TrEMBL record:
Name of one Pfam family that matches: LSDAT_prok
Highest taxon of the lineage: Bacteria
Family matches, as InterPro entries: LSDAT_prok (IPR041482), TRPM (IPR050927)
Protein name: LSDAT prokaryote domain-containing protein
Ranges of residues in domain LSDAT prokaryote: 35-228
Length: 244
């Protein structure tokens, strides 16, 4: 199905009920082959005003340009909030062409062509190119789907998850990536869940989930302070991981 936003931007969307349907479903909306995948998870809200400018720079100067230069797929939660909004806006700001795929529970979002969506539904981010609408009654139900979509799209090409900020659901996103064997790069200094996980990686954990994730061997962290020293170093690290 084709979605048309108020901004006149369009995206292709597909509904799926079972993860086994994903390869065929993604092919039907033009997403096939095998290429690097960047998964972005983290804060949908509550990013502090102090952290916001640096996090925004990370998207416009590091993540979006890397995805564009590698021709990578980018997968996130697809709603018009937080890191997903930043990813969409960064793609448009730099004039990028990479596919940006939002994976979200259909029952929780307002589709742009709905006449009168319920007040509690969250709008989709209009700069995304594709959406995968999945089952689920609660936020967080999409976490395993995001991870599986990334696995299917990568098709044995390199893929990593970048985790910034975040709340409770971000822990679920991290576990889903780890369970898929996908490296999670935690952006330390971006606040909340990311900082809890970075502390765990430094051996300063207080949260049991963070301890378990840190012991998985599939987490590492990059300090956001590095963006002040220059985005080049941070970009090289992430690009290197996606190019291996």
């Amino acid at each position: 199905m084709k979605l048309t936003f108020d901004t006149k931007q369009t995206a292709l969307a597909i509904r799926v009920d079972q993860q086994a349907e994903l390869p065929d479903a993604l092919e039907r909306i033009g997403l096939g082959g095998s290429r690097s995948v960047l998964v972005v998870v983290g804060g949908a809200s509550n990013i502090s005003e102090a952290d916001f400018p640096r996090i925004k720079r990370l998207f416009t100067e590091v993540l979006a340009p890397i995805a564009e230069s590698l021709g990578a797929y980018v997968v996130d939660g697809g709603t018009d909030a937080g890191v997903m909004q930043l990813m969409g806006e960064a793609r448009t700001q730099i004039g990028a062409k990479f596919a940006l795929i939002g994976v979200t529970p259909e029952s929780k979002v307002a589709l742009p062509n709905q006449q009168e969506p319920a007040a509690d539904l969250i709008p989709l981010e209009p700069n995304h190119t594709h959406f995968v609408l999945v089952p689920g009654k609660n936020w967080g139900d999409e976490s395993p789907w995001i991870s599986q979509v990334a696995t299917v799209l990568a098709n044995n090409a390199p893929s990593i998850t970048v985790l910034l900020n975040g709340g409770e659901i971000t822990f679920e996103d991290a576990f889903s990536s780890v369970n898929s064997g996908r490296l999670v790069v935690v952006i330390a200094g971006s606040g909340r869940t990311a900082d809890i996980l970075a502390d765990a990686l430094r051996g300063q954990a207080t949260d049991e989930r963070a301890k378990k994730l840190a012991k998985s061997g599939t987490l590492q962290y990059i300090d956001l302070i590095d963006i002040e020293k220059g985005v080049e170093n941070l970009g090289k690290i992430i690009k290197g991981l996606l190019s291996n």
